[in-house]
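User: Show me an example of a complex going from sequences to structure tokens.

Assistant: Sure. Here are the input components:
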Amino acid sequence: MSLLKLQKLALTPKGGQTRSNTRDNKAALVFLGPWLLGSVVLVIGPMAASLYLSFTNYNLLQSPKWVGAGNFARMLTDTRLHHSLEVTFLYVLIGVPLQLGAALGLALLLDRGLRGLTFYRSAFYLPSLLGASVAIAVLWRLIFGGTGLFNTILGLIGIESTTSWIGNPDTALSTIILLHVWTFGSPMVIFLAGLRQIPVEFYEAAQIDGATTFQQFRGITIPLLTPIIFFNLVLAIINSFQAFTQAFIVSAGSGGPSDSTLFYTLYLYQEGFGAFRMGYASAMAWLLVLIVGACTAINFWASKFWVHYED
Amino acid sequence: MKPLIRRGLALTAATAFVLGLAGCGGSDGPAGDASSVADPVATVELRLYWWGGDARHERTQQAIDAFMAKYPNIKVTGEFSDWSGYWDKLATSTAGGNSPDVVQMDQLYLASYAARDTLTDLGAVSTLDTSQLEPAVLGMGQWGGRQYAMPVSTAAFGLLVNLDVLDQYGVTLPDTEKWNWDDLKAFGLEIAEKSGGAVAGVAPMGNEYSLQLFARQKGDNLFEDDQIAIRPETLAAYFQHALDLAQSGAGPSASRLSETAGLAIDQSDFATGKVAAIFSQVSQVSAYTAGSGANVQIVKTPSFDANQTKYEYFKPGMYWAMSAQTDHPEEAGRLIDFLINDPEAAAILGTERGLPANPAMLDSLTATLTENEAKAVAYSQSLEGLLGDAPAIVPNGASELDKIIARYQQEVLFEQRTALDAANAMIKEVKDSINSAA
């Protein structure tokens, strides 16, 4: 909104003085310069290049050879690609609701005027800062290994287990989803801010009318929070599709055990840099753009039915 | 009340995130520049690039300094990275026309780079003497009849056995001179039983070098004429061997193996005494014992028939190669020559990259070898009678071979595929990959 205002200011002629108008435009260009340069060189340029490369056979070391839709045709028969899509969708479908649920739950607890709120907020936010880091992924290996902390704790409560949770294809993905859920801090902070925006009068009026806490939650909190939920949902889905670091570190770059954590981005990386199939990897990147774009579009369409904007 | 988040903002954020995907490129691996003292008379500048750990970085930098003292007109800058970051960076810098002049090369990648005209034929570089290496070793630096790389070191393959663990549980090492694969399994079982499961016996093989040897024992070659040539039954037997060890209890469980697969040597189950024996390039014996201090013996790889010969070979541990993009092939050749053939360099570099491929350099080090290094040398010499011709190097398009073997082996270990099914699928995948690279 503020951006729009700025643009209006820049575009509105000031008493018809064309000279100052041009000067303003020049000034705007100067200020926009760094951003413009950055986005052309670092975003738009590489994107255009990868779009071109997605129609070529490119091994990084020799010039790309045009193959038309060859890369996209190969996707149809690439079983590892299909498997990586399966893994990634599973991760998104399970991880996102769990993470947002945890974030909302914690935000509701913290919103009750707790003493030391700042401390708790920071404490719960911390995993978000660390979650995608190499150190935490390494820690995860230690916790969910065969002789790790998790099994030790299970042992303390009487369940003997020597299963290696990250070494077993049936459970490895779950541990990475858990790691993702644990990084609920940033949606939580956004939920908290949203909860703070709901006027107290609504709750007071509801209490006078005899509404229970649950009724208040369902009738006031949730509807007024829907824009925030929507925002968090959109970002969480997009972020989850791009998950890479956790799987890369926990599986030592292999996506193992036996491809059970082969995320789409991890496979893309293996194809591009490991197997010298950068053309195919570029095509994969664009397929991901299409998938995420489609998911987001569906999200926006569906939002009409459940998100309430109050103006 | 004003909603915090409006539809417009969400849409903008979403678009930015989505579009950010396509522009996502690879980042260079961690790399460091070891700058060297500027020389006023330097006229030629070279860049030398290698992967490795801290010990290698220090020694190589010292060797560079010695080289620059000897050739004051050449200034060499060292660049280094860890293994996985190395190949990303080499590929991207080569693609960008900015490749270092001299690069450390591995057998998995040699053909992939040579076939794409990115390396210089060293045979045509007059400043480099290639004659001091054994022809069989030198041959493994060739592709398409040209010498694209100089072997730095040779590696022999064997079984490392932790004698301390054997002593602790009262297990005696069987006669390994004539032993076969069944003896190995029995040995692993005995360790597991006598230790009450505290120590897993023998970890299975699972890489290109061991598959080559296994195939040669079966009378196969892994590669012929730049294509995978191993028979499915042979590859299936290789996978089955790993499955037998895991299922019988003679080796670590499948999930234990996959959990520990990515660990550094000093944290591995063998270094920490949780596994009594592993297959390895024998020069790794120093690294494996550095942390634990255990007494490790190197023994022969089992075979199918005690009288079998000609299946062993020494694999180049790594190579020096010259980029085709270098402006100074003569000087770069001088640098490689110094690193391979000069006793001064040999004294500095020691056996950190494995036992020197140049026999004269190895001899010059004999007096200063550590106990473990001497073990590796003695073991290599003991294999003389079993040596056969050097095999074909890994062809262009198969540089992911080690990872592919590990992946299919895991599928067999977790019983998602039968050994024969995995073998057929793996052969098809490697074949497709080689064909698509050609």
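The lines above are the inputs; the final block is the predicted structure for all two components together. The domain at 79-306 of chain A is CATH 1.10.3720.10 (MetI-like fold).
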